[in-house]
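User: Sequence in, structure out. Go.
Assistant: Echoing your sequence, followed by the structure tokens.
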Amino acid sequence: MVPRAPPFLPASACLEPTRDNASEAMSNAANETWTDALPGLDLLHEMHFGIRDLAAMAQVAGMLGDGGAELDTLVLNRAAGALTARCRIKGLSPQRARDLLGALASAGAVEAPISVEHLMLSRGDRS
């Protein structure tokens, strides 16, 4: 017996894994942005990282776009000669956002400390 999905989740979220649908379910889960399942909400990822200079920010922006992320907000701060950035992106699953931040670090585009927080925010005005 296949369990019923709660009213706020698509029915496919409760499929019992079988040999035929297990790899398809994992593939779909990797690309899931969750916005369809939660109308009125946006899944955003707030990334925090250091950058060496403003030229590095151009590399970060390029890699975010190439990775399929949509930039929502970008804030740069300078303190004690170091630059830190906080950016909110959308259009990615939580795992894809973590992978993208890891790729930015591996490419040397961002510096420690790095972190990503996942936020569910209502659509409309956000500050």
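User: And one key feature?
Assistant: Residues 1-31 form one domain.
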